[in-house]
Design brief:
The chain is α/β, with parallel strands linked by helices. The chain has a domain of 148 residues: Rossmann fold (3-Layer(aba) Sandwich), CATH 3.40.50. 39% of the residues are buried. The structure holds S-adenosyl-L-homocysteine (SAH). S-adenosyl-L-homocysteine binds next to strand 2, helix 4 and strand 4. The site of S-adenosyl-L-homocysteine (SAH) has 24 residues, from strand 2, helix 4 and strand 4.
């Protein structure tokens, strides 16, 4: 039987609930955002499969479960100023923007950022501000942030991002070497102390320095 996208979305949301995604605000946001708008046309039928999918510039849109999980453990509220590193398709940014006060998102591939900006406009997400640059440096002019989410894997936590996290703030970041097991790490800042919690094994594209104008 061929299911419509709406039917597939409903099943995906049920699957996420079964996987302990129980934040009702977050589930409502996932229901409103059209994931099919963020992926290449040829893959639209797969928009509500619980899988990562390829996007342009050799990058990926994260698996819906991982987007939901990272967002849930970040504990975002509508008072928060949030930084995302790795805009990619813009899907995770859209989810965060619906939950927070202001979202700042940085991408090192210009074509991806341009495409994401078009969708932010289409979805009336006016609290998103974008930057073409190397997110490892954070966004000093906008710091500090209540929450930081990094959506590309790094061997080490970039020092600048730790500095730009507000006291009491939370950061989630995948840590590990490419091709080896990476872990989603949650960091909670308490003054000069950064509590580090290992969450779950993940697989992310690498966090790289430098910027890419085309391809
Ligand atoms: N959050 C994205 C996930 C995209 S994959 C989504 O929902 O689709 C990770 C993204 O991080 C890629 O687009 C990659 O180009 C970007 N990236 C990697 N290193 C980066 C860096 N140093 N600064 C900014 N973006 C980076």
């Amino acid at each position: 039987m061929r299911l419509t996208l709406a039917e597939k979305k409903k099943l995906l949301l049920e699957e996420l609930r079964d996987e302990a995604i129980n934040d009702e605000n977050l589930l409502a946001v996932l229901e409103t955002i059209p994931r099919e708008d963020f992926i290449p046309k040829a893959l639209r039928a797969q928009a509500y499969e619980n899988a990562a999918l390829p996007i342009n510039s050799g990058q990926t849109i994260s698996q819906p479960y991982i987007v939901a999980y990272m967002t849930q453990v970040l504990e975002v509220t509508n008072k928060h100023k949030v930084l995302e590193v790795g805009t990619g398709s813009g899907y995770q940014a859209a989810v965060l923007a619906k939950l927070c006060r202001r979202l700042f998102t940085i991408e090192r591939h210009l074509p991806l950022l341009n495409a994401a900006e078009v969708i932010f406009k289409k979805l009336n997400l006016y609290n998103v501000t974008t930057l073409f640059g190397n997110g490892m440096k954070g966004w000093p002019e906008q710091a500090p942030f209540d929450r930081i989410m990094v959506t590309a894997a790094s061997e080490e936590i970039p020092e600048k991002l730790l500095e730009q996290l507000k006291d009491g703030g939370i950061m989630v970041i995948p840590i590990g070497i490419q091709g080896e097991i990476q872990y989603m790490i949650r960091i909670i800042r308490n003054g000069d102390d950064y509590e580090r919690q290992e969450m779950l094994p993940v697989k992310f594209v690498p966090l790289l320095s430098g910027i890419v104008h085309d391809s």
